[in-house]
């Protein structure tokens, strides 16, 4: 006897409506990026790739892109290294005040970015630090470190403690054990952490806008272009590329994380995708 | 065995985890070439004690010596011990060969010699030809062998085994027990095994330390441990033991006379004197196989009691009976081998039971 339990149709309709609400606006990006009209409106006027060409020729956009990639690369590298220390400490050692310390590290994840950005701006100005991409990097490290800590903590947690002890037992020192055993086993987590931090930093707007001073940042630049209707399709083209890049990087990060789990015999669970 | 030099010596070893007193004054010696087991229930401190030898656990006070040298402040990576972990701790990103040869990394011998040593170690544990396999693709039994080869290739003075067989199924476990015994005889290294399985300890060990709550309750060879446990706790942990109340009638040098329920007046050997004096309440303990049912036609024995069968459990090769010996208020479990032609008794049968004073053990 076969009975297939049907979920009530209302749940399914709700789920579909929810997904449309979430992703339909993003689908509009490529639609208008290839539309042969300055005005973003239906009906579509025909297919063109000229907006991509225009975007490519925009020197200011390139400056902003260069700055944003520099910032994303630096902050991803710094926060992954910080995350490595934090994850190692929180999974391996017991120390007084561990709970509150870990909570403080993770706090920027839920703290309104507006408040972070404002307080950092006030701080930098009051101590006389000139705003530059350096200050943006510092701000982004604050925001991306919780991501790095979360990903790397899960990587360290799935590491059997006795692997480390086995390496000591076989004559290795703590530092060579880290290099020969721990690092290779958490490497997928490190790659995943780097890629996700990179993506988060690249997309970040508020801190970039507040702390960049006169340096153009990509997110702020895109926002600025909306003042000029003629530039909007060009931004749509850029947005399309950024969406593809973000999805690509996140997928790559997840791939590395799962491969790491499989290599150590674990099951893929949790994670961001 | 006592003529062999001392390999490991514990002197009043204590270990605290915060307020928790995990090891409470361990004093013992383990001799070179011995197969020594630390046996006890989980949480008794046996693994902690093993880890103090390996150097993974600092001790709070006392002395741990290996081969006459105090190990205080000596880190795990320079101790002459190697360990087989409960989880095997096979490095999952390396091949079988790389795992087995891991400890040789700092050894100055040539590449060819190392490869040869690895091949020999793999052959010794029955994994010839497995060298190129990825470690994470091995079965439980194979991981176990890789862990053994990886530890033995360094020719340690002491091999530490932390519940190495607990993750294997019954058949595999029995096979590995035999292989471990063979390996130990072959290499002659001191083996120290941690286990909670009393049968495993009895089968494999030269000597066993039974541990409860951070203390060694009894340290003896398997036969002594089984026949003459020094407390009811040890007796209950190793095999099955029946207890019946008894009263001490007289206690003098050379002999103890007791009046035991179900057995009457018995004289026991001097080793069992407890210094409690006449009139003290005690217990008589005996193993299930030390009482024998006398079937019809079997001749009378010196020592006989009458009993009623209250329960019969048939195991194929054995039959377990619960008997109520006349004059007792509780059942006694005995085991009989099902020799050809021997009947299985029914519940309620009256029967004669033969016993020997030598099989009775006196407990507080």
Can you give a write-up of this model?
- The complex is a heterodimer of chains A (273) and B (364).
- With 273 residues, chain A is mainly α.
- Chain A has one domain (57-263): MetI-like (MetI-like fold, Orthogonal Bundle), CATH 1.10.3720.10.
- Chain A is built from eleven helices and no strands.
- The longest helix of chain A is centred in the first third of the chain and has 34 residues, at 59-92.
- Mean pLDDT of chain A is 84; it is low at 267-273.
- With 364 residues, chain B is an alpha+beta fold.
- Chain B folds into two domains: 6-236, Rossmann fold, CATH 3.40.50.300; 242-363, OB fold (Dihydrolipoamide Acetyltransferase, E2P) (Beta Barrel), CATH 2.40.50.
- In chain B, the strands form four sheets. Chain B has a six-stranded mixed beta sheet with strand order 6-7-8-3-9-10, sandwiched between helices. In chain B, strands 13-12-11-14-20 form a five-stranded antiparallel beta sheet, with no helix packed on it.
- In chain B, strand 9 and strand 10 (215-220) form a beta hairpin.
- The longest helix of chain B has 18 residues, at 170-187.
- Chain B starts with 5 loop residues before the first strand and ends with a strand.
- The model of chain B has no long low-confidence stretch (mean pLDDT 90).
- Chains A and B meet through helix 7 and helix 8 of A and strand 6 of B.
